[in-house]
Design a protein that fits this description.
The protein is an alpha/beta fold and 315 residues long. It folds into 3 domains: 3-92 and 271-284, 3-Layer(aba) Sandwich (Rossmann fold); 96-178 and 293-314, Rossmann fold (3-Layer(aba) Sandwich), CATH 3.40.50.10800; 182-266, NadA-like (Rossmann fold). 45% of the residues lie in helices and 15% in strands. It is built from 14 helices and 12 strands. The protein has helices spanning 3-24, 36-41, 48-57, 69-78, 101-110, 124-128, 139-145, 157-166, 187-196, 210-213, 222-231, 246-252, 275-284, 293-314; strands spanning 26-31, 44-46, 62-66, 83-85, 115-119, 132-134, 150-154, 171-174, 201-204, 218-219, 236-240, 257-259. Helix 1 packs parallel to helix 13 and helix 3 (48-57) packs parallel to helix 4 (69-78). It is globular, with a radius of gyration of 20 Å.
């Protein structure tokens, strides 16, 4: 495709999406891992926690969720009066698929005295079996808030291990799940990148392996990374999370440089949403996300408890 044609086509889709958004009275929400052009046209961008908060307070009745299915499910449950659309029906999450409600019920039977903390990167059915949800930005605070001394943490073992190190007074039982994207990053790749850019700080997501996190100057959610970079006097950063975050980091910090330690730091599911699919979603009002009410009611409770605890901690 010729560059000039490509630009004209993008401008055409941007106009179409803007017109359809106005016609539908819609709000476009995009995760920090989405394609640059999707983040550019979105009304709200952020990590899972920021997106959950934004949806609950939105006045719009149609929410187009540019992310993956578990995120859209959470939006649907937190705002049952709204229509939530996922532009690409196949946009799933391998981490969320590593646990099922049935398997979690069996684990709960093994540890009847444990509370269940569920990372939001999970299905509505799994959330429904949990006591409270968490995101990477509030996981430590959520676990600390519990009265129980024993906690089943699902499904990401790397995030769970990160939390366990910071809440040693609790016994955490970790599910053996992981993010396939963050697991790709190795200690050797980080060290090699540090050698190429010795002045750069290494910032990492807690879904990374422990040996990778041990090398980090800062560990946090995507929102946390964005704030850290903004406030840091350092001018160079090695970014230990999905490459989509580079869009906002570069836009917010044009005087700083960012390096990715591995070419494999791409989430294929996050990249499924294109401007064309977004336009089609608004035009045809697809794909509508719905969660059975008996599941939604219980899962909503776990999500709302997370929001309440986080609000209390930050107040």
């Amino acid at each position: 495709m010729r560059p000039e044609f490509d630009l004209k086509y993008k401008e055409h889709l941007d106009r179409k999406i803007t017109d359809l958004k106005k016609k539908r009275g819609a709000l476009i929400v995009a995760h920090n891992y989405q394609r640059d052009e999707i983040q550019e046209i979105a009304d709200i961008r952020g990590d899972s926690y920021a997106m959950a908060r934004a949806v609950t307070g939105a006045k719009e009745k149609v929410i187009v969720f540019c992310g993956v299915k578990f995120m859209a499910e959470s939006a649907c449950m937190l705002s049952p009066d709204k229509t939530v659309l996922l532009p690409v029906e196949e946009a799933g999450c391998p981490l969320a698929d590593m646990i099922t409600a049935e398997k979690l019920r069996k684990k709960k039977e093994e540890h009847p005295d444990a509370a269940v903390v569920c990372y939001v990167n999970s299905t509505a059915a799994v959330k429904a079996e949990s006591d409270i949800c968490c995101t990477s930005s509030n996981a430590v605070g959520v676990v600390k808030s519990l009265n129980e001394n024993k906690v089943i943490f699902v499904p990401d073992r790397n995030l769970g291990r990160y939390v366990a190190e910071r809440v040693p007074e609790k016994e955490l039982i970790l599910w053996d799940g992981y993010c396939v994207v963050h697991m790709r990053l190795t200690r050797e790749e980080v060290i090699s990148t540090k050698e190429l850019h010795p002045r750069a700080e290494f910032i990492a997501h807690p879904e990374c392996r422990k040996e990778v996190l041990d090398l980090a100057d800062y560990i946090g959610s995507t929102a946390g990374m964005i704030e850290y970079v903004k406030g840091s006097p350092c001018k160079e950063f090695i970014v230990g999370t999905e490459i989509g975050i580079i869009y906002k980091l570069t836009r917010d910090n044009p005087d700083k440089k960012f390096y990715v330690p591995t070419e494999q730091f791409i989430c294929a599911n996050m990249k499924l949403t294109t401007l064309g699919w977004l336009a089609r979603s608004l035009e045809k009002m697809v794909y509508r996300i719905e969660v059975p009410e008996n599941t939604a009611e219980r899962a909503r409770g776990a999500l709302e408890r997370m929001l309440e605890v986080t609000h209390r901690i930050s107040a």
